[in-house]
Amino acid sequence: MDLQLHGKTALVFGGSRGLGRAIAAELVQEGATVVIVARDAARVHKVAAEIGCFGLPGDLSVEGVGTALVKAATDLLGRTPDILVTNTGGPPTGSFSATTSAAWAAGFQGLWMSAVDSIQAVLPGMQANGWGRILAVTSVAAKEPQPGLVISNALRAGILGMLNTLSREVAGQGITVNALLPGYTNTDRMAELGVDNASMGAKIPAGRLGEPAEFAALAAFLASGRASYITGQAIAVDGGFLHSI
């Protein structure tokens, strides 16, 4: 299947590892010109060289960096990115009673405002071009709260509301807006949480954790010209883990 991504440009946050790296690699393979972002400057340039794309260092937990990264990517590409993939690391674990105001504020900047700022920055160019794809990597926690992830549970659900609202505003302008909800996937984040096939596989109908490449395949399709009538959706890639419909 030709995903019609040759000649398209993409900006992928969190692109040096895990889901972000897999998405970036898939887009490159499909012919897109890609810029990846990560906090570690040495790592982002190393990974960019490995997968054949551009790399930009940036810390999305810092106010205003989302906007600055869109500008830097636009300068690097010579045009506004056609595809924006927002993707940031999950906030710290913890219960509601153990979560401080500072932790809430940090989570809001990292999960929420980094997405809002970057979308606001990229949107005018997409509107001028009459074509755009906005993909937000969130979590199954956006639909079904997970134990010990109060910040993620709360903020990711709100992001879905924001994205759906935006999708309706820009649907007639050739721009689609969708959320991708990874389930338990074999990434560094899961390793940090102590999650593996032994501990979680039996709880997932598919019987195992997902692989980043499986998630990236959906992202590439939604970013493509073939997915022009899919917008305002929150699609889980979770091996059947979610109970909701």
Provide an overview of this structure.
By secondary structure, this protein is of the alpha/beta class. A seven-stranded parallel beta sheet has the order 3-2-1-4-5-6-7, sandwiched between helices. Helices cover 43% and strands 15% of the residues. The chain has one domain: 3-Layer(aba) Sandwich (Rossmann fold), CATH 3.40.50.720. Helix 1 packs across helix 8 and helix 3 runs parallel beside helix 4.
Major β-sheet, in short? 7 strands, parallel
Helix content: 40-55%
Query: In whole angstroms, how far apart are the ends?
Result: 28 Å
- Name the beta content range: 5-15%
* Helix and strand element order: EHEHEHEHEHEHHHE
Q: Order of strands in the sheet with the most strands?
A: 3-2-1-4-5-6-7
Per CATH, the superfamily is NAD(P)-binding Rossmann-like Domain
Which structural category fits the helices and strands? alpha/beta
In CATH terms, what is the architecture? 3-Layer(aba) Sandwich
The figure for the number of domains is 1
Report the radius of gyration as a whole number of Å: 17 Å
Mean pLDDT: 95
Note poorly predicted spans. Answer: none
Set out the fold topology.
Blueprint: E1 9-12, H1 18-29, E2 33-38, H2 41-51, E3 54-57, H3 65-77, E4 83-86, H4 101-129, E5 132-137, H5 150-170, E6 175-182, H6 188-192, H7 197-200, H8 212-222, E7 234-237
Parallel strand pairs: 1-2, 1-4, 2-3, 4-5, 5-6, 6-7
Helix pairs in contact: 1-8, 3-4, 4-5
